[in-house]
Amino acid sequence: MAFKHPQFLVETDWLADHLNNDDIRVLDCTAFNMPDGKGGIRAESGRASWEIEHIPGSGHADLVNDLSDQNASFRYMLPPVEQFAKAMSGYGIGANTRVVLYDSTSGSWATRIWWMLRTFGFDAAYVLNGGLHKWKLENRALSTSPSTYPPAIFHAKPRTGLMADRLEVLAAIEDGSTCVINALSKDQHLGTGGANYGRPGRISNTVNVPAGDLIDPETHVYRSPDQLADRFANAGADKGSRVIAYCGGGIAASNDAFILTLLGYENVAVYDASMSEWAGDPSLPMQFG
Q1: Rounded distance between C-alpha atoms, residue 14 and residue 239, angstroms
Q2: Exposed/middle/buried for 186, CB within 10 Å: 0-12, 13-18, 19+?
Q3: Residue 151 falls within a domain, yes or no?
Q4: How many CB atoms lie within 10 A of CB 13?
């Protein structure tokens, strides 16, 4: 089978051929979840890693400092529309531009920015398959030079239904009509290892499709459409029903949501606060093991 919406995923050959097009913008979306010394994690901007090496011409999309709600109680929350539009305008994203997104890790940071762009009504955004990892495997050029994209005017057109909150998730796990998918690792899902967010385990009555399993571990390229479709179908995701993805803070969940979109799932949302909110509230049900 093929992806229903393959246009949102581009290959390194394509980017190399179009890198100098006037309408192309490339953004390194890398950020890092670092151990906080207490069994949890803290957010760290990837701007320093971008300064060390990046795809020539690319700018850095700073999720931590520019693209997260600075007044929210949880990290990485979707920012107010004005904040997002200002940041994207500064990155050179606007009418008549196309943007290719990548990161230096698993692709989840790039898909998080892609999902936010989708939420704010911008569809000319693409994820680079394999990211910086594959670009470097192919011995392609790297740069340390700053981006020279001119500022643009980003017009946000917010869409509803692409972000879920805890009330929707609570209703979903109670009525069973929505498939709620945990994008964290199997160990985190079971509560047997990995970082936790206050309580180990998972949201009750949810299934597990780890974002880390979506890619080939050697190349970081996404697995075949057939393999990806099987993973989600076997977990119980139905194209005719709503699907909500969650993780620790809406990052890995965006990777699952991105692949679900490529596969043709039309009613997908990301639980923005995810386990950062859920696990911290003892009144919300969780399962372990």
Answers
A1: 30
A2: middle
A3: no
A4: 10
